[in-house]
């Protein structure tokens, strides 16, 4: 175990699986206590139990509902008396071409990604500014840089997260709170492995490193952004993509 986050407390939304769980695990390994916040409350509790009941708790949290995001912050404060790091990772996809995408599909993705990230950023910032320290890590996507077919909703939301991150970073810098974003590329997960082989092959052809990334490779960058190793960085965007669309 390294001590990069010794005695600090983090909240990870969408933390019950995939990239979110990998981030939560890396934070625990670095000495932090973690609130696993997820729409699926049972999965959040199970993930926290796996991480260790002395270092993690699981809470149900719909990031679109501000009171539930505040509830996750309150849970951290009630359990450990402090809160230092917010990771806004929760997300969904509702892919469809513009011709077939419904308004509901557009609104759902914008709400979870963009409003959810805004809720997490503003509510975390309200607490962190009082203690004059803290880090907020927002998970965007390469789709927010280049735009992907069938993802007008997702690409718009993920691009919006970048603009929001930079604006929030400017607002919070003089309060000692840093706000940065990560843009993952193709990451091996249950969702991406379910892709049609043709789509997978096409994406692989775009990656100079010729492989998909692992959730742990996003988690290590999230650890860097949460820790004092990135103490002079705010408003930045890290592309973790194997060189895709550089």
Automatic annotation (TrEMBL):
Signal peptide: none annotated. Residues 8-190 form the Ketoreductase domain. One of its GO terms (molecular function) is 3-oxoacyl-[acyl-carrier-protein] reductase (NADPH) activity. Keywords: Oxidoreductase. Its EC number is 1.1.1.100. It is an enzyme of class 1 (oxidoreductase). One of its GO terms (biological process) is fatty acid elongation. Pfam families: adh_short_C2 (PF13561). SMART domains: PKS_KR. Belongs to the short-chain dehydrogenases/reductases (SDR) family. This is 3-oxoacyl-ACP reductase FabG. It comes from Aeromicrobium yanjiei. The lineage of its organism: Bacteria, Bacillati, Actinomycetota, Actinomycetes, Propionibacteriales.
């Amino acid at each position: 175990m390294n001590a990069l986050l010794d005695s600090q407390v983090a909240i990870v939304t969408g933390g019950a699986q995939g990239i979110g769980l990998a981030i939560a695990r890396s934070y625990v390994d670095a000495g932090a206590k973690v609130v696993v916040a997820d729409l699926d409350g049972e999965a959040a509790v199970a993930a926290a139990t796996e991480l260790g009941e002395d270092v993690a708790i699981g809470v149900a949290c719909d990031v679109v509902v501000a009171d539930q995001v505040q509830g996750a912050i309150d849970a951290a404060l009630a359990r450990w008396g402090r809160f230092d790091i917010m990771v806004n990772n929760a997300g969904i996809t509702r892919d469809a071409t513009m011709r077939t995408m419904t308004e509901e599909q557009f609104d759902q993705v914008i709400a979870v990604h963009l409003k959810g990230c805004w809720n997490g950023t503003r509510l975390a910032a309200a607490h962190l500014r009082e203690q004059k320290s803290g880090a907020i890590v927002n998970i965007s996507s390469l789709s927010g840089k280049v735009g992907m077919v069938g993802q007008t909703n997702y690409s718009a939301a993920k691009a919006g997260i970048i603009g929001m991150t930079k604006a929030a970073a400017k607002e919070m810098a003089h309060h000692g709170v840093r706000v940065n974003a990560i843009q993952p590329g193709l990451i091996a997960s249950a969702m991406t492995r379910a892709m049609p082989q043709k789509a997978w092959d096409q994406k692989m052809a775009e990656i100079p490193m010729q492989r998909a990334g692992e959730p742990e490779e996003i988690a290590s960058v999230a650890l860097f952004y949460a820790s004092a190793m990135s103490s002079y960085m705010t408003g930045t965007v890290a592309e973790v993509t194997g060189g895709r669309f550089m």
